[in-house]
Amino acid sequence: MDFAYRSDIGQQREENEDYVGVFQNKAGINFAIVADGIGGHQGGDVASEMAVSHMGYRFENTHFDQPEDAVKWLSNEVQDENQHIIEKAREFSDLNGMGTTMVAALLFDDQFLVANLGDSRGYLFRNGALHQLTEDHSLVNELVKRGEISEEQARKHPQKNIITRTVGISPDADIDTSLFKMELGDQLLLCSDGLTNMVPDDQLAKVLADQHQTATEKCETLIKMANTAGGFDNITALIVAVDGEVAGK
Question: Which of 25, 44, 77, 155 has the fewest CB atoms in 10 Å of its CB?
Fold first, then answer.
């Protein structure tokens, strides 16, 4: 299994409020996470770093190797970190209102768990097709689901940055989790909306389909494409390539 990630400040922002990491626990299970900080004068980068570094550190000290245990652990961790971020924001006035989105994957022998809060996304590229595994927790996605606007209108909607679920800000931090079977050749893409707002899905798929690029080179290509399209936000891409033996295969 190959992991690669890149994060970039983009063309318009003064700070990079995205944070990304890959961690391994005592049982050899891998945990990949991307967080996109929001709110506060400098609070976004603090919230995203807190979420990734705290959860990553605590994950490294776990011993579980089953998905059902991972769901329980992740749900509890997100609730705990949500409270930590809220308390930190109360402690420092310049961090008031900070929070972060997050998308994460836990990789087992023949399955992977994907979890998210906010509009950072998880995708699966399998057999030449790209599948979005996560659902955005955003105002515009709610409008799309209700049929009030089209997906194309959502891409350019003036309120597209309004997030309905985060880690931090609200006392409720309900995370969505989904479990999938793993296949040889799968590629997982975890990314912030600085990528998906700039690069359409068909172009994401084209990059992931390129057999001449390594996972690291694909991350670099995706970030370059987002910057070329305007780079209006911070950009983070994390790719997991399942290039080894899958249990049961």
Answer: 155
**Interval 157-183: pLDDT, tens:** 778 778 999 999 999 899 999 999 999
Kindly list the distances between the CA atom of residue 67 and the CA atoms of 92, 108, 140, 179, in Å, as whole numbers in the listed order. 37, 7, 31, 8
Domain ranges for the chain: 2-241
Phi, psi of 182 (to 5 degrees): -100, 140
Longest dimension (CA), the chain: 54
Residue 175 is predicted with a pLDDT of: 96
pLDDT in tens, 7-56: 999 999 999 999 999 999 999 999 999 999 998 667 999 999 999 999 99
**Sequence-ordered list of residues with C-beta below 8 angstroms from that of 17, at least 6 positions apart, any chain:** 36, 37, 38, 44, 45, 48, 234
Nearest to 119 by CA among 132, 102, 133, 104: 102
> Tell me, what amino acid is at 79?
Q
Residues 6+ apart with CB under 8 A from 197: 155, 160, 232, 233
0.90 cut: is pTM over it?
A: yes
Asked if residue 89 lies in contact with residue 168, where contact means CB atoms within 8 angstroms, the answer is yes
Superfamily of domain 2-241: PPM-type phosphatase domain (3.60.40.10)
Residue whose C-alpha is closest to residue 67's, from 21, 23, 29: 29
Residues 122-158 pLDDT 10s: 999 999 999 999 999 988 888 888 888 877 787 777 7
